[in-house]
Specification:
By secondary structure, the chain is α/β, with parallel strands linked by helices. The protein has one domain: Rossmann fold. The chain is about 30% helix and about 25% strand. It has a 5-stranded mixed sheet with strand order 2-1-3-4-5, covered by helices on one side.
Length: about 170
């Protein structure tokens, strides 16, 4: 008798597991990308397609990124804001080329320090934000910039999923 009870209990557990698995996957949410500020290597009005392509390479299955069409409202969007930060190197500056380094670019800074803020809006409502700083050369062939954008995109997605959207449980007096 106990073997039958165990078998039925295990079948109930397996059935519950099958019922909890979603039957069909939802289509990814299309999120429009817009940018403001200064991003090295880009006119800011031309940065959105580049940002969308790099964010798409972050491999987030629930989100699909497109450049925002300026003529249409975008309730599902990410607003990027870029700022060039001042150089505060702290190293000894040399203003003459040195043979061992190959020139002035290394010492005078081919990289620029930028700060970026990405704000996520879904359904027209603010959800979360991600912030970061990185030294980048700029332009569409900069691997540092591409990696930075992917990291911030993943941080934004992690922040969104960390939001507890369950209704609060209020415990009343007994």
């Amino acid at each position: 008798m106990t073997d039958i009870a165990r078998t039925l209990a295990s079948l109930g557990l397996v059935g519950a597991l099958f019922l909890s698995v979603p039957v069909r996957a939802e289509a990814p949410v299309t999120i429009a990308i817009e940018a403001s500020g200064e991003l090295p290597g880009f006119r800011i009005q031309d940065a959105s397609p580049y940002l969308a392509s790099k964010m798409e390479s972050a491999g987030l299955p629930d989100w699909h990124f497109i450049a925002r069409d300026q003529g249409r409202a975008a309730p599902d969007r990410i607003e990027w804001r870029f700022t060039l930060l001042p150089y505060a190197g702290g190293e000894v500056r040399r203003f003459f080329p040195m043979r061992e380094t190959g020139g002035m670019d290394l010492h005078l800074g081919a990289h620029r320090l930028i700060a970026a803020e990405a704000k996520l809006y879904l359904g027209g409502e603010y959800q979360t934000a991600a912030f970061g700083q990185e030294a980048v050369q700029g332009g569409d062939s900069d691997p540092d910039l591409a990696g930075f954008l992917v990291r911030l995109t993943r941080n934004l997605e992690n922040g969104y999923h960390a939001i507890d959207m369950a209704p609060a449980v209020h415990r009343g007096a007994p």
